[in-house]
Design a protein that fits this description.
The chain has 187 residues and is α+β, with helices and mostly antiparallel strands.
Length: 187
Amino acid sequence: MKPLTTHQRLWFYRALTLLATVVIVHVLAIWATPRLIMRVLMHGPMAQAMHMQNQAAFPPPVKASSRSVVLPSPDLLYSVCVFDISRGPVRVTAAPQLPGYWSIALYAANSDNFFVVNDRTAGTKPVDLWLVSERGSDAAQRVPPGSQVVVAPSTTGFLLMRVLTGNYETEKALVEPARRTLSCTPI
């Protein structure tokens, strides 16, 4: 086998450097970025100000000047909760009983959506979720009747409840009490 020339070695090292750069950028973009975004969302200044660790928080309605979320929807009211099941289950309850759209979505620490319930799937029944970790399945034995066990893929995560409102000012008396039925309670 013939040894590589200086020119060939140079191109080999350039290709190797390019490949290493591609791998590093891929890891940062696909693996690290979602985790960093969720970390800021769950533990950043806004989360600290709203005290949403294992308890529901109710941000004000979105207005044209709101920019804490990119392109927020003024047709939706949001309720949020950062859950931590590292010390035990967290119970999530809500009874919106609204004629229109509402949903509760659970997100893992890497931003993966792993559970959704909405007005179509729950109907008029209240939502009663028992969040447990993958290794905390023994907690499922203490679940009260009617509760649904949801196994979270990470010990921390984010809950986002959305309630549709066509005109907040005219529907305020209906939608505010509905979204405030959300509770996140460590067990």
